[in-house]
Amino acid sequence: MSRRAPTVRRRLRRLTDAGVLAFRCDLAAPPAGHPVPVTLLGQAPARDMGAVNRTLAALPECRLVAGVTGPANVLATLWVHDVADIQRRETALCARLPALTASVKRMGHLLDAAGRRTGGMQPNYPW
């Protein structure tokens, strides 16, 4: 065994104990009981991004959370049980995370609470 292995083991233990690093096993959605993947975009103030991302990442149904650039600076992918669960999850997340505002839906269309289009966002791509 290399002398580096104990160092790596010690550093990994320190990171996992601090909650900085977590190991997950990924598998196919249907056997996991979460057959509907949904990606949500939202916006949070920069000062709240750490807390928002940590809260989202701690959810068992969260598969990905990322801070991204642009008006919608939070991206999260969840596995939910059915399509009806999407709105319930989003409403619960916004109640739990008051700094998070879910805003952009359906390919850049802004929707009201009833799901009707109220406007749109023009992408601001540099290319």
Topology (elements, then pairings):
Blueprint: H1 4-17, H2 29-32, E1 36-43, H3 49-58, E2 62-67, E3 74-80, H4 84-96, E4 101-102, E5 104-105, E6 109-111, E7 117-120
Antiparallel strand pairs: 1-3, 1-4, 2-3, 5-6, 6-7
Could you explain how this protein is built, in words?
The longest helix has 14 residues, at 4-17. With 127 residues, this protein is an alpha+beta fold. It is built from four helices and seven strands. Mean pLDDT is 80; it is low at 123-127. It has helices at residues 4-17, 29-32, 49-58, 84-96; strands at 36-43, 62-67, 74-80, 101-102, 104-105, 109-111, 117-120. Strand 6 and strand 7 form a beta hairpin. The protein has a single domain (30-120), classed as Alpha-Beta Plaits, CATH 3.30.70.920.
Write a short abstract of this structure.
By secondary structure, the protein is of the alpha+beta class.
Quick tags:
alpha+beta; 4 helices; three-stranded antiparallel beta sheet; single chain; about 130 residues; Alpha-Beta Plaits
Radius of gyration: 18 Å
Task: State the end-to-end CA separation.
Answer: 50 Å
CATH-defined architecture = 2-Layer Sandwich
Total domain units: 1
**What name does the CATH topology carry?**
Alpha-Beta Plaits
Protein structure class: alpha+beta
Mean pLDDT, all residues: 80
CATH homologous superfamily identity: Lrp/AsnC effector binding domain/regulation of amino acid metabolism (RAM) domain
Question: What's the count of strands?
Answer: 7
For the biggest β-sheet, the strand order reads 2-3-1-4
The number of helical elements comes to: 4
Helices and strands, in N-to-C order? HHEHEEHEEEE
CATH class category: Alpha Beta
Q: Unreliable runs, pLDDT <50, ≥5 residues?
A: 123-127
Largest sheet: 4 strands, antiparallel
Q: Assign a percent range to the helix content.
A: 25-40%
Q: Proportion of β residues?
A: 25-35%
Shape: globular
